[in-house]
Amino acid sequence: MTDPDPRPRNRRVPPPEPVAAEPPEPAGDEPEPNAPPPPRPPRNLRPLWWSLGGLVLLGGLAASWFLLPIRTVTVTGHERLSEAQVRQLAGLTPGFGWLYYGRWRAAGLARSPWIEAATVTRRFPDTVTVQVRERVPFVRWKRPSGDVVALAEDGTVLPGARNVVGLPLLSGWGPDRRAEALALTRALRRYNVQSVAYTPSGFTVATTTTTVWSGDLATLLKYAEAIVQFPDQKIYIYPWGVSVQ
């Protein structure tokens, strides 16, 4: 009897044939067999040369300290300061290296109240010349505390000044008017000023022959000839004129 709906029957299928694997490609970084070794990179010698150069420089600087010491020092212009004091202010210690001496070493000259100006000159190979201009005591100033010190013409206090008893004496109270008193003393120098006293209301000037008072500096200087015209008198100077007693 024939099957009206035939179905496919199972058939045995042979297994697939194995496929041979391809050999792996050699890595690019691996050297080929029997290949020569790669050349070595050149050595960087720059740090070595820098080190050698630094050692040579340090050696030269150290040698210059001993080979070029300051041997000759000349100081001029000093009268009240001794040569030893000027040397000390200028930092000129024995054996200091000439090559290394400079403004930083001589800074003590600028800090001294006695030195108004200084010029320092180096001359190869071992000479330094120091020329100073000193401040000069101009007046005495009686401080509010009562002690008396010497002042230069620019108002700088000069510590330890000697032989200043004959200088004009400045004193006063209230606001500090030393600058005006110094200008007044300088302007009236030819009248042989002995003292200048200031107060908030004005100035009193004493000379060897008279005393004069004024409320302000400009008016006093305007009528200063009254000091000569009225000797042995007390003079009062106002903006509108002169009063004598």
Quick overview of this protein structure:
With 245 residues, the chain is an alpha/beta fold. The protein has helices at residues 46-67, 83-89, 107-111, 178-187, 217-222, 226-229; strands spanning 72-76, 115-123, 127-134, 139-142, 148-151, 157-158, 169-172, 193-199, 202-207, 211-214, 234-238, 241-244.
Account of the protein in words:
By secondary structure, this protein is of the alpha/beta class. The protein contains six helices and twelve strands. The protein has a nine-stranded mixed β-sheet. The protein has a three-stranded mixed β-sheet with strand order 1-3-2. The longest helix has 22 residues, at 46-67. The termini are far apart. Residues 54-66 have low confidence and may be disordered.
Q: Could you say which structural class the secondary elements and strand pairing correspond to?
A: alpha/beta
- The poorly predicted ranges are 54-66
State the helicity in percent bands: 10-25%
Our count of helices gives 6
Number of strands: 12
Strand order of the largest sheet: 6-5-4-7-8-9-10-11-12
Radius of gyration, in Å, reads 48 Å
Described by strand count, sense and barrel closure, the largest sheet is: 9 strands, mixed
Order of helices and strands: HEHHEEEEEEHEEEHHEE
> Percent of residues in beta strands?
25-35%
Report the end-to-end length measured between terminal Cα atoms: 176 Å
